[in-house]
């Protein structure tokens, strides 16, 4: 940490390493003091600190020093629902796909760490630093079990996420909407829910990260200019459930089945144990397309590039049925994907595709190898059913 930054150690504000007592007031006091000083770094030293919900402000770094652990309360009633600042337009799933749940829940925004409409914020961890959401369960939450997120940033600019492990969140580990210029590196997202969920975010870079999740690794709607590189991705749901344009996935290793079970298949109640071996573990799709009827993009989804990746043990490569609102594919059609030096092994079946007649899907391939679980080995043609209408594919 730079010596030029104002430093605010949470223990100087009364925080104690005590996993049995909430430390929100002390941690928030440190964050508020940092704000009042014009910015700086709020330092979490080694220890175990129980929190339910704190809020970051402009020009703030939250630094988890080596051995620092933030533990989320297991009681969803502890978490605040912050007021939405004036001028903030949320783009969470509650706004993007309201027809999915058909119930608006203000408590959807609960999170261990939140930020709204701020700039220049960083969450940085040292060795063995950890954010643990305690699998916080809410019977009144989305899908009957989802509790608070790990990280919730809305309408933020210049965001850095680096060097920590996050696990066992009650909902998405990272929920970002309408954020711009985000860099995520060296972060491990483990267990339960989506590793990172991006809606209407621009200029996002995810590099050298590990995703081992029970839900989607990387997800989001209306994502523009996203690069995912040098990452390890393992899931019991979809590797990417995403829609948008100018999306590059490169130098990544993707494999299934998932280490952690699909969260929905093991959740029954607050007190139930969630054994890792139970539930469903197969990886469904490398890419499950994701779109919105309420906030469609101004132009079709294009500029996808998947380059120098290995994909193994995934059931199918792609799922896109244009206009299918039930599959969350309606609103913005997918029109363009390029694959370059991609090795795909152990597919269960071909993609499920129904491209839009007015916007055909074009797939360009170079050096693509594919093998199926039934032993068939071939090229990229094995990714698709031969008679798929409105699909244009070939080699360049």
The number of helical elements comes to 3
Mean pLDDT over the residues: 94
* Total beta strand runs: 31
Strand content: over 45%
Give a short account of the largest sheet.
31 strands, mixed
| Overall number of structural domains | 1
Named CATH architecture:
3 Solenoid
What does this structure look like?
By secondary structure, the protein is mainly beta. It has a single domain (89-268, 278-395), classed as Pectate Lyase C-like (3 Solenoid), CATH 2.160.20.10. The protein contains three helices and 31 strands. It has helices spanning 24-36, 93-96, 98-101; strands spanning 7-9, 18-22, 40-44, 47-51, 54-55, 60-64, 68-72, 111-116, 119-125, 130-132, 149-154, 157-162, 165-167, 174-177, 180-185, 188-191, 196-199, 202-207, 210-213, 218-229, 232-235, 238-250, 253-255, 283-289, 304-312, 314-321, 336-347, 352-354, 361-372, 377-379, 391-395. It has a 31-stranded mixed beta sheet that branches. The protein is globular and about 65 Å long. The termini are far apart. The mean pLDDT is 94.
Please give a quick description of this structure.
A hairpin with a 4-residue loop joins strand 29 and strand 30.
Topology:
Elements: E1 7-9, E2 18-22, H1 24-36, E3 40-44, E4 47-51, E5 54-55, E6 60-64, E7 68-72, H2 93-96, H3 98-101, E8 111-116, E9 119-125, E10 130-132, E11 149-154, E12 157-162, E13 165-167, E14 174-177, E15 180-185, E16 188-191, E17 196-199, E18 202-207, E19 210-213, E20 218-229, E21 232-235, E22 238-250, E23 253-255, E24 283-289, E25 304-312, E26 314-321, E27 336-347, E28 352-354, E29 361-372, E30 377-379, E31 391-395
Parallel strand pairs: 1-3, 2-4, 3-6, 4-7, 5-8, 6-9, 7-10, 8-11, 9-12, 10-13, 11-14, 12-15, 13-16, 14-17, 15-18, 16-19, 17-20, 18-20, 19-21, 20-22, 21-23, 22-24, 22-25, 23-25, 24-26, 25-27, 26-28, 27-29, 29-31
Antiparallel strand pairs: 29-30
């Amino acid at each position: 940490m730079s010596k030029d930054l104002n430093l605010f150690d949470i223990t100087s504000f009364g925080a104690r390493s005590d996993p049995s007592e909430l430390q929100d007031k002390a941690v928030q006091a440190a964050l508020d003091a940092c704000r009042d000083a014009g910015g700086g770094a709020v330092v979490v030293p080694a220890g175990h600190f129980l929190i339910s919900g704190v809020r970051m402000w402009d020009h703030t770094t939250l630094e988890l020093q080596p051995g620092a652990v933030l533990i989320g309360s297991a009681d969803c009633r502890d978490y605040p629902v912050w007021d939405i600042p004036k001028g903030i337009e949320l783009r969470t799933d509650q706004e993007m796909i309201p027809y999915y749940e058909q119930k608006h829940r203000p408590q959807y925004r609960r999170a261990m760490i939140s930020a709204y409409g701020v700039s220049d914020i960083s969450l940085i961890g040292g060795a063995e630093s950890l954010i643990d959401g305690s699998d916080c369960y809410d019977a009144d939450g989305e899908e009957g079990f989802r509790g608070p997120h790990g990280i919730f940033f809305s309408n933020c600019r210049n965001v850095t996420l680096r060097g920590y492990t996050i696990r066992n969140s009650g909902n998405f580990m990272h929920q970002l909407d309408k954020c711009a210029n985000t860099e995520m590196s060296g972060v491990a997202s483990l267990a339960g829910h989506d590793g990172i969920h991006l809606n209407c975010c621009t200029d996002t870079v995810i590099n050298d990260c590990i995703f081992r999740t029970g839900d989607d690794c990387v997800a989001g709607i209306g994502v523009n200019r996203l690069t995912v590189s040098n990452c390890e991705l393992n899931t019991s749901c979809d590797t990417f459930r995403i829609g948008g344009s100018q999306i590059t996935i490169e130098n990544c290793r993707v494999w299934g089945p998932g280490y952690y079970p699909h969260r929905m298949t093991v959740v029954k109640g607050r007190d139930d144990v969630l054994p890792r071996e139970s539930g469903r573990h197969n990886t469904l799709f490398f890419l499950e397309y994701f779109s919105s009827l309420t906030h469609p993009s101004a132009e079709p989804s294009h500029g996808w590039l998947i380059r120098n990746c290995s994909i193994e043990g995934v059931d199918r490569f792609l799922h896109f049925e244009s206009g299918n609102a039930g599959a969350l594919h309606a609103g913005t059609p997918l029109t363009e994907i390029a694959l370059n030096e991609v090795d795909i092994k152990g597919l269960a079946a071909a993609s499920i595709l129904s491209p839009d007649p007015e916007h055909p899907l074009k797939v360009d391939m170079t050096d693509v190898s594919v093998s199926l679980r039934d032993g068939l080995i071939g090229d990229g043609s094995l990714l698709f059913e031969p008679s798929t209408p409105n699909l244009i594919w070939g080699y360049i």
